[in-house]
Each structure stands twice: as C-alpha cells, then as structure tokens.
Please model this.
Amino acid sequence: MSTSWNGAGHDAFAPSVPGTAGRSGGREPEPARPRRRFEPSRLLFGLGLLALAAGVAGRVAGRSPVPLSVLFFALPVLLLLTGVVASLTHRVRSRRNRSRPPG
Model:
C-alpha cells in the first residue's frame, strides 16, 4: 500500500522507524498541484443559494416578509442566471485562448 486512506502520501499502516518522523521515506516531495480556475458562475450560484436559504429560514422563523411564491420562483431564475454567466465565461476564455500565440 503506497498511499494512506487520507492521501497523506505514506503508508499509514507501516511500522514507523525511529528518526524518520519528519521525512517521507526518502522520496522527493510531490509537485505542487495546479491552481484552480476561478469560476464566477459557481460564486454566483453559492451566494444565490445562501440568499435563498436565508429567505426560507426567515420565513420559517416568521421574520421574513418575502412571499413563498417569490422564493420558489427565485431558484429557476438563479439556475438560468448561473447558466448564462457560465456560458459567457466559457466564451470569453475560449476567445482569449484562441488569440494567444502558441508557446
């Protein structure tokens, strides 16, 4: 077994050798993972869901004047808006990558 269940990069079940607690068995460190791309549509969707959850929680607590029909209508609108933003982001990134010279 070369990797532990939690991806620590060492065998979690192998007996430890004294004096090697800080080292990873003489292997070189793993290369850094590439950075993730910022996705505006995911940010918009997450913030929208938080707002919807706050509206529902306020409605359940009796403190929100937002009608229930507005909350039900807001979810499909949020999904549609998220799709539009994702489409625009994809279009902008594909044009930017096409205009760059290779290399």
In short: Helices lie at 40-61, 68-99. The first helix runs from residue 40 to 61. Residues 40-44+52-98 form one domain. The chain has two helices and no strands.
